[in-house]
Amino acid sequence: MTPRRRSAPLWLAALCALTSCGIPTTGVVEAGGPASGVTPVIQVYYVVDGTLVAVPRRTTAPVDVAKALETLLLGPTDGERRKRITTRLPPAAGLFTATPIPTSPDAPGPPQQGHRPSDLVTVTEREDGITVRLAPSAGRLSDLVAAQLSCTATAAQRVADPGSQPVPVTVTGSDGRRVESSGVRCPDA
User: Fold this and answer.
1) Phi/psi zone of residue 32: left (φ > 0), alpha (ψ -120 to 50 degrees), beta?
2) Which ranges constitute the DSSP H helices of the chain?
3) What's the rounded Cα separation, in Å, for the pair 30 and 61?
4) CA 138 to CA 117: how far, in whole Å?
5) pTM of the model
6) β-strand partners of 121
7) pLDDT digits (tens, 9 = 90+) for 60-88
8) In b/e form, how buried is each residue of 128-155, taking b as 16+ CB within 10 angstroms?
9) CA 57, 114, 105 angle in degrees (round to 5)?
10) Is the pLDDT of residue 98 over 90?
11) One-character DSSP codes across 83-115
């Protein structure tokens, strides 16, 4: 027998081993919902001892500036408050509730009913910039409040469109005071 003829059965055995790994065929297996991918993480900006800090938050996709600001307006978690993380924004009870909530020492005005986040700010996104307008119930527009809103909006825009350059953010208070994002320095997470 020639070497070529002796190797033919070996090739045939190798081919059979490669094409059949011994796993029986099955039908469709129902195992839950469809894959959902990675949960996006955004940075919201709160305050510790008068200084702006980035705090990561998981959110649902798609990410946009309005959703990020609603997340910011929900305020720090109980665990974050224990770490002295606060906000200078008024409290928001939940996306669509109006139940009484505690007021942080830094919140403007007396204790109040919770607001829907969408009642506190109006967000307009355009290619050339983002405008955030505070409602009268949001209180006074301080530089720190403007920084919280601007940095959160900029961070959300980076997550929503990772390859783009950040656009300017303008925050306007209920009294007409405007703060441009160009002078705001946002700390990293």
Assistant:
1) left
2) 3-19, 65-73, 78-82, 117-120, 143-160
3) 25
4) 10
5) 0.67
6) 134
7) 888 889 999 989 988 999 999 999 999 99
8) eebbbbbeeebbebbebbbbbbbbbbbb
9) 75
10) no
11) TT-B-SSPPB--TT---B-PPPTTSSSS--B-B
